[in-house]
Design goal:
This protein is an alpha/beta fold and 212 residues long. Helix content is 32%, strand content 18%. Helix 2 runs parallel beside helix 8. The longest helix has 17 residues.
């Protein structure tokens, strides 16, 4: 692989995108098809990164009930009473399989101020107001503080937030890995387009083997 694209595993961080109850459960109000099916593989990867004491950052959405911070395509629905990832609701929480401890909950006040919330050793949550993980967030500063060169991206739902975050990361010259079997909504053309901009496409076991 090109020397500028090769993942530097010892300087990598795992990003999970929008792995929240409201997006991940079939009974939830904003369920994204296939997201429940990626939880086992993503959980395996999260546990591995914890064991290796490598950074994990959970990038999440929070929609105020008045719709004031909601992206335009969902704002009317929220204004009219649809409850999606409402701050301090069960649906806004990280899916339980990915939590470092079941007692951990999001501090909505801190997150909405765009401050990273530390969830555990080497593990944080960051709120994003739109599709991309870098847009008006503290993600880039946190990555710089951690001396990260390589981002391992997984979660919900490829056409929107993971893809946007990947392109934002590419603009900032991060080396990028997409976890093929731990992202919902991935399709062949999107996969090919990412390969064309130098993104590595690997599965969980390949990543685990490279980071032991």
């Amino acid at each position: 692989m090109d020397q500028y694209l090769q993942p530097i595993w010892q300087d990598s961080a795992l990003l999970t995108i929008d792995m929240q109850e409201d997006f991940s459960r079939q009974h939830a109000p904003a369920y994204i098809e296939g997201t429940d099916k990626i939880i086992p593989e993503l959980s395996k990867l999260v546990q591995h990164y914890r064991q290796q004491q490598r950074p994990i950052i959970h990038v999440v959405r929070l929609y105020k009930s008045n719709g004031s911070n909601v992206d335009l395509c969902r704002r009317r629905a929220v204004e009219q009473g649809m409850n999606i990832v409402t701050p301090r609701s069960d649906g806004a929480e990280l899916v339980k399989e990915l939590k470092p401890d079941h007692s951990v909950t999001f501090d909505a006040q801190k997150l909405l101020k765009t401050e990273p919330q530390k969830l555990a050793q080497q593990e944080w949550a960051i709120y994003k107001p739109r599709w991309g993980g870098f847009f008006k967030t503290g993600l880039e500063q946190l990555l710089q503080d951690l001396h990260i060169s390589t981002l391992v991206v997984a979660g919900c739902n490829f056409p929107n937030c993971p893809r946007t975050t990947i392109y934002e990361a590419s603009e900032r010259d991060y080396r990028i890995v997409l976890v093929k079997n731990a992202v919902s909504g991935l399709y062949p053309r999107g996969e090919k387009e990412l390969q064309n901009i130098g993104v590595s496409i690997l599965n969980t076991q390949e990543i685990i083997s490279n980071t032991q």
